[in-house]
Amino acid sequence: MSPVRRGEKLPIYNRIGVLRAERKMTRAELAETVGINVQSVGALERGDNYPSLDLAFRICAVFDLPVEAVFSRTEFGAMSAELYRRPDLRPEPQSDPGGAR
């Protein structure tokens, strides 16, 4: 049985606006490419509407990204934080110069 009860709506967050901006793509261009109207792109970006699975796949194909890179059940953080995470900066353990056992 699904963990989601009938009638409950969980949010679906997306990065459509960010991805469009990175590619200098207008809402109209995305809408035409995936076969929806411009208002629908705006509603998706705002989270007013959620895409069908088919539409989600079409949008992901435009950006050449997997679904989880474009859509999520949890809010996305800054993309730069994910792409440019610094490695763990903890100091490495010091070896015992006396050779204690």
From TrEMBL:
SMART domains, alphabetized: HTH_XRE
Keyword Kinase: no
Amino acid composition bias (Basic and acidic residues), ranges on this chain: 83-93
Matching Pfam families: HTH_3 (PF01381)
UniProt region (Disordered), positions on chain: 82-101
Ranges of residues in domain HTH cro/C1-type: 19-70
Protein name: Helix-turn-helix transcriptional regulator
Organism: Gordonia prachuapensis
